[in-house]
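Dear Dr. H.,

I hope your travels went smoothly. While you were away I took the liberty of generating a structure for the chain from your last submission, since the lab meeting agenda had it listed for discussion. I wanted you to have the full record in hand beforehand rather than looking at slides cold. The sequence, exactly as received, is reproduced here:
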Amino acid sequence: MITIINYGSGNINAISNIYEKLNIGFRIANTPKEVLGAEKLFLPGVGAFDETMLLLINKGFKEVLDEEVLKNKVPILGICVGMQVLGNSSEEGELPGLGYINGVVKKFDESLIKGKPKLPHMGWNTIQEKSKTSLLNGIDLEIGFYFLHSYYFGCLNISDVVATTQYGQEFASVVCNSNIYGVQFHPEKSHSNGVNLLKNFANL
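The corresponding predicted structure, in token form, is as follows:
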């Protein structure tokens, strides 16, 4: 059973539609109480870092996430900004992140990017696997995934980087530390690769 956290940010309907078509059980947690006892947690994210953290804090989700993820070791997958807030901080804002994976979210260096518009990094791009994880089973690396972001996750520990992508520079597009997973791209917009990744997370 996948518990999708509905804190007010992210494409909840697109994710739930995919799990429904896959016949994989899910529930949408609209309150922190509904997160308790989760088997797996899904943290969507669209928008800015501070805005996302404020929503998680003010709606009471951060405290229960700390309990489930850090103490009870429930697997969690964050996507896009939901991945970025897994880190310690961001150049985009002033608030601390969840701090689940050591990293600082940084803005792309536009001087390294060819062509215009330079930001956001938008559209399909490939990923390069750095370490094996069942999260990427059956993924066509040459097709890749759909991205939409201007900031990237700068991992402080190279061992947490599962896959990277090139956009002017190499950046972490998939991260993992123990039960904590993050992907910078949007699986719900990535056709068969996205569907396979969401299925893989359910089967971890």
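Two observations you may find useful: The chain has one domain: 2-202. The domain at 2-202 is CATH 3.40.50.880 (Rossmann fold).

With kind regards,
E. W.
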